[in-house]
Each structure stands twice: as structure tokens, then as C-alpha cells.
Amino acid sequence: MNDLAPLLTPEGRALLDEVRDTDPAQELAVATRLRREHPAELVSAALGQARLRQRAVVKFGAEDAGRMFFTPNGVEQSTRASVAVYRARRMAEAGITSVADLCCGIGGDAIALARAGIRVLAVDRDPQTAAVARANADALGLSGLVEVREADVMDVDTTGFDAVFVDPARRGGRGRIFDPEAYSPPLSWAVSAARRAPRGAALKVAPGIPHEAVPEDAEAEWISDGGDVKEAVLWFGTEPGAVRATLLPGPRTLLSRGLPDPEVRPPGRYLYEPDGAVIRAHLVAEVADRVGGGLLDPTIAYVTADALHPTPYATAYEITDHLPFNVKKLKALLRERGVGVLTVKKRGSAVEPEELRKKVKPQGPHAATVFLTRVAGGPAMLIGHPA
User: Fold this and answer.
1) What gap in Å lies between CA 363 and CA 82, rounded to an integer?
2) pLDDT, tens digit, for every residue of 321-368?
């Protein structure tokens, strides 16, 4: 908070504008020049904030990131704007007009909710984080809809709000926390808070949450953006027991129909690689049903089929060769085909892609994709290209 306050002054804001596009390699020279006219602490704070804003562009876009304020943890742990906007839209479409955003961080979700016309109480117990969230609401012209409160979320009365959104801390001193009851606050507390909300709730959890940890009265949604899995959300007040995978941009949503596991079959002409959100949601069977395919192996999330059926929920590849795993044979085949650009994908294989590239030394004008996986329990290589 001490670093933030000087940046909110006219001198601090002018300095932020001046260092906005500073090349990290030029920071020392820029700092030396600016310290002749400004306090050293202010120059350091401005340059540090400029670095954080540059890192935040990928999550918030250049326009918002250039006006917002960040902490190192805030950049790392905040929700990507596209995901926050999608979730806020779901709440607005459900008729929710007010939300208690518990564990608000730097305010990324509060901003998306406010822009959807929802009144927000944003709560965080860390003084610096709460100050940054308040500054961000002000910087983006949303302070009329966003109230920021520094408090322990477990002590906050959410009476009077349609819904709650809880984003528990999932990192500790030793890195990521995988046990939902070790979240801060614990998942069980968040579920209790969600059940008390009159119009519904959304709880952000790690994508790797065990399916058996999902409450029976919750809808579970796994979300990916641009093919990268970002989070899972437990929704209350929507469709109890529903399981879905949502792909952004779009959105495109695949809903579970409770299909049995696909049959295992020999490799066909096409291989389908399901989106990560589809895999996390255990909806590979839905993809296999859509493309008329089966699994290469009962434990691997690769679908194979004889025909091409484009689907947004999986990337299709045309397979030209299927071989038992053998580095020498792969090297000879790639040399024969003149493959110099080799994409290596793997599931169920201990071989590291970079190590394989070093061994096969691809050379030539053509490109190919090799899948290192198992077929009916045995290590195998499938070579092909995007369909």
C-alpha cells in the first residue's frame, strides 16, 4: 500500500505515463535519469508498476492493463479477463444484480461483474491487495458499482446480496495447494456460503479438483481459453449435477450426457485430441460419440475414427503412419519424408519431446506431428498432420 499511494498522486500518475513503454533492458538508464527529478522510491515504484502492467497485457488487454494497478501475485493469480467476462455474463443472464466477491484479489472479477451492470462488494483481507482493487475500480470508472472492503471473508455478512463469488487462495508457501480443504478459505466453508446465497453462487476452484469433491447440488464447469485450461467453477442455483466444458472464445459449451466410456479400437485414419477442458470434465466420451470414434487405449484421452468430423471440442489430425515406438524407425521415416519441423505430442509416454527431437534430428522442408502414446496397452508412435 505504501508503494501504491505515491503512484496515485498527480506526480506519480505522470511518471507512470512517462515510463509506460520502458524496455526492461533500458530500466537502469531510465531510472538514473528520472531520479534527478523525482524521489528514488517513486521512480522505483513506477518502473515496477510498468513491468507489472506489461505482464498483465496478456490477461487484461493493453487498454485496461495500461490503466490498472497490480501486485506481483495479482498478475500471477488473477482471472483472465475473457474468463471473468464470461462468468459475469452468466450471472447477469441469470438475473443476478448484486454479488459479494470474496477473496477479490486485485479486482479482476469485480471489474467484469460491474461492467455487466452488477453491484459488487469486493473483499480481501490483505491491505495492499484491497488498496489495489479499490484503485482499479476507480481507474476504470467503476467505483460507483464496486465497494472494496478490507476484511476476512469469513467475517463478512453477505446478507442483501443476490449471489456470492468465492475465489479461495490455492497457493501456499510450498506452491500450489491440491487439497480443496487446504484452500483459504476451505472449500467446505465456500460451499456453505454459496448455499446461503438467495440467487446462486460461483466458486472458482483448481481445474484438477477431483470429481468426487464436487457437491451433488453443484454444477461443475471446466473452462479453457484458446485451448489452455484456466479454471473450474462450481455453480449453485443453476443445474445441480450438471457437468460441462466451456471453450473460449465463443463460448462453446459441451454438456455431459452421461455416456459410457468409449470402446477401444485400432487406429483409424484420424486422431482427435480433445480440448483440455473436455478432458478435465471427463467428457471424452461425448467427443467420441460426435466423431463416431473410439479410444486408442482405455487410459489415454486420444480418440480415433475413420472419418473426419470437425468439432470445436477436439483438434483433428490425419494419421499417415502407425508404428511401435522405435526411435531409429522414426528417424528414418522422417528423413525419408524430409520432415524438418516436427511437433511432438505425448500422452502415456515417458519420452520427453525435446529429447526425442535431439535424437531424430529432423531436417527438411516439410512438417509433421508425432504422437507418443499407447495403443491397446503398448507404446506406439502415430505420425500425421493437422486435418
Assistant:
1) 39
2) 999 999 999 999 999 999 999 999 999 999 999 999 999 999 999 999
Question: Which residues does residue 118 pair with via DSSP β-bridges, in sequence order?
Answer: none
CA angle 107, 108, 111 (to 5 degrees): 80
- Residue 335, amino acid: R
Task: For residue 258, count CB atoms less than 10 angstroms from its CB and return exposed for 0-12, middle for 13-18, buried for 19 or more.
Answer: exposed
pTM above 0.85, yes or no: yes
**In the predicted model, what is the mean pLDDT of the chain?**
94
Q: How far, in Å, CA of 305 to CA of 267, rounded?
A: 7
How far apart CA 41 and CA 253 sit, in angstroms, is: 49
Predicted pLDDT at 170: 78
| Strand 366-375 versus strand 339-346 pairing type | parallel
Please report how the helices 353-360 and 327-337 are oriented relative to each other, as an axis angle in degrees rounded to 10. 60
Decide if pLDDT at 18 tops 80.
yes
93: cell is 443472464
For residue 41, the surrounding DSSP H or E stretch is helix 40-65
140 and 64 Cβ atoms separated by less than 8 Å: yes
DSSP string, 263-329: PB----SEEEEE-HHHHHTT-HHHHHHHHT-EESSTTS--EEESS---BTTEEEEEEEEEEES-HHH
Q: How far, rounded to the nearest angstrom, does the alpha carbon of residue 93 sit from its chain's CA centroid?
A: 22
The 10s digit of each residue's pLDDT in 120-144 is 999 999 999 999 999 999 999 999 9
d(CA 50, CA 44): 10
- Provide the CB-side half-sphere exposure for 96 (13 A, CA): 31
- d(C-alpha 318, C-alpha 310), whole Å: 12
Rounded to an integer, what distance in angstroms lies between the CA atom of residue 109 and that of residue 80? 9
With 0-12 / 13-18 / 19 or more C-beta atoms within 10 angstroms meaning exposed / middle / buried, residue 264 is middle
Provide the CA 149 distance to its chain's centre, in angstroms: 26
Cell numbers given for 236:
449453485
Q: Which of 166, 131, 369 is nearest to 272 (CA)?
A: 369
**CB atoms < 10 A from the CB of 13, how many?**
13
Q: Are 111 and 117 in contact (CB under 8 A)?
A: no
Q: Which three cell numbers stand for residue 340?
A: 524438418
